[in-house]
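Lay summary. Proteins are chains of building blocks that fold into shapes, and those shapes determine what they do. In this project we predict the shape from the chain. Here is one chain we studied, written as its sequence of building blocks.
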Amino acid sequence: MTVRGADEGPGSMLLQVKVWIVGSEPLIWRLLEIDPSLTLDRVHEVIQTTVGWRDSHLHSFTDTDPYVRLRAVNGHVREPRRWVPLDLLEDNDDDLPETDWNLGQVLTPESGPLFYEYDFGDGWIHRLELTGTLPMPPNAPRARLVDGARRAPLEDSGGIYGYHDLLDALADPGHEKHNDLQAWIAWTAGPWQEFDPEQLEIDTVNKELALLFPAPDAKQHRPGGESLTQELTNRMPPGLRREFRSYLHAAGLDGPATVEADLAEAMTAPYLWLSRRIGLDGLSLTAAGWLPPAVVREAMTELDWDQDWIGKANREDQTLPVLQLRESAQRLGLIRKIKGRLVLTSAAKRLLDDPTSLWHFLARSISHRHRHDAERDATLLLLLEVAAGKRTERADYLEAVAFGLGALGWSTRTGAELEPKTVQSLLVDAQEVLLNLGIFDDRFGLKTNTAKAPGQALARAALHS
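And here is the predicted shape, written in a compact code that computers can read:
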């Protein structure tokens, strides 16, 4: 009869457990303090978090190394025990449910080491050894990373020996696959953390463990009360949340987003000009529904957009910057088209003489007004990249946004990754706003410069809203 190891609350002591990846050289290891009452499914979460895996493959626990043949004792070979998730139980009647056993039952001074296998294809074997016990202090975390070295290997890198070969090729610029592997590593590691085999941020890991096991009196978020970045984070695969949260922190999103009045007026100048030109009485359009030629020419001159524009710049349908500004102002909720006239919304009327409030209004609008969910997610990911201020070329932004969209589950109807042109189409509206605000200066599609401090501040304000 199986006695379930209840995971109902902390026990009276902690286990000191050393975990390392078998075959790694130099050793990839972690030293943990962990509550023995945690069931193995929760121990799986702890290992994923502390080693740094993305939890995208199957796993199991065994009381012997699954790749080492057991020796016969008195002519008998002991059957190893194997604990698996509930959805794998049907594959083998001898397997045990990991939810019914806790760590204190399977890792004892008498038991010998415990083994955790992750990704049955690559076969990452982790050895867990009990190195000691200590009393659990009051309010102690149920799992804590004490020490360790080196980040987890890259997912799908071919097991420990494949990973070693990859690192060797990466360190040798003359290797025939060096450039191809660099590109593969950049895509696999993703845009939120630079790949560094030696990296291990213990404080960051322990913050993630605290989120796995919140204190009983921790405040819970009310449904619908999440920030935009919290909502995005919660939709990420669990194995990517730590990396995403680290990137959010690096982008300064946990600080205030403010703007000086003169800077707000300079950034919002195109929207201010258009709103004031329409005025409280509204502005009549031509019979074909376009801005009058004189207004188009005035906009190009007043906003200093005529310097780089070829043509008379007096027809809205042939003067892209003015057309984009008008359409953008409509999408953002500043103006409406009614019976052949452009009129200000009630919000725009209140903001005519308040550039700072207009700056905040535009920040909120760019993060909330979208045609569909995919466009919304792409816009939020672009704003994150602007806030972080790390990208330079258009392709860099597209690759980073594409990676995030894939993590959030967006793909083509056939399940393929989104192509750059598809990602670009999702970002058209947001990029137009950023151009009008002077955050990007790539109106003609040649390149996109790194966002400077004013643009970063607006992106943070948008993501705070």
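What the prediction tells us: Residues 420-436 form the longest helix (17 residues).
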